[in-house]
Amino acid sequence: MKIEKSLSTSVNLPAINWSCYNHNGQLLVTAAVDGCIRLFDTRTGDCISSWSAHQGEIYSAMFSVDQTTCYTIGADSKFIQWSIHNTGQQLSSTSLHQGAVGPFVFTGHGGYRQVQTPKGKLFALESEGQHLLTCAPTGAQMYKINKDGSLLRSLYLGGHRSPVVTVDWSPVADCRLCLSGSMDGRVRVSSVIPP
């Protein structure tokens, strides 16, 4: 194996918290600690766009199912939809519930206390892109994504005894399996029928 090319943002590289390819691997979106989103053309290795997206770190980023937008979630507890065609154009922004982005705190007997900063996948889209799953204090919060990009709380998947720090949906079309993983090491797989 050999390295074919290396992508870089500038001489002073910020730490990257998350990266995600689009459906054909020609675009890469990165989420950085400086609050900026960077969009790379993987064929040339060039950063083709960069914009300030959140106040504070961006923890996760993902392309929409139709590949025309991307979603981000940051330390400011906002879930934001961005245009890929008009980069930097914010299409929607929603403040999420408490516990969606951390810091995640787990307490136990005898004064035990553990604090975890976000490291995992903090949100996931179901295969049709109509529902969003996010972390929550003792479960996973599901939202319906409206046509205008706004979110409507729809279902809470509880059952955890500690904060949920990562979530995901099965990538299989028409499959309604989703998972939530918590600080105490438990993973719950739920079969849901979104409302």
UniProtKB/TrEMBL annotation:
Lineage, please? Eukaryota, Metazoa, Spiralia, Lophotrochozoa, Annelida
Entry's Gene Ontology molecular function annotations: phosphatidylinositol 3-kinase inhibitor activity
| All residue ranges annotated as the Anaphase-promoting complex subunit 4-like WD40 domain in the record | 19-61
Compartments where found: Early endosome membrane; Late endosome membrane
UniProt-recorded name of the protein: WD repeat-containing protein 91
The record gives the membrane topology as:
Peripheral membrane protein
One Pfam assignment:
ANAPC4_WD40
Q: Which Gene Ontology cellular component annotation is one that this UniProt entry carries? A: late endosome membrane
> Can you tell which superkingdom this protein's organism belongs to?
Eukaryota
Q: Name one GO biological process term.
A: negative regulation of phosphatidylinositol 3-kinase/protein kinase B signal transduction
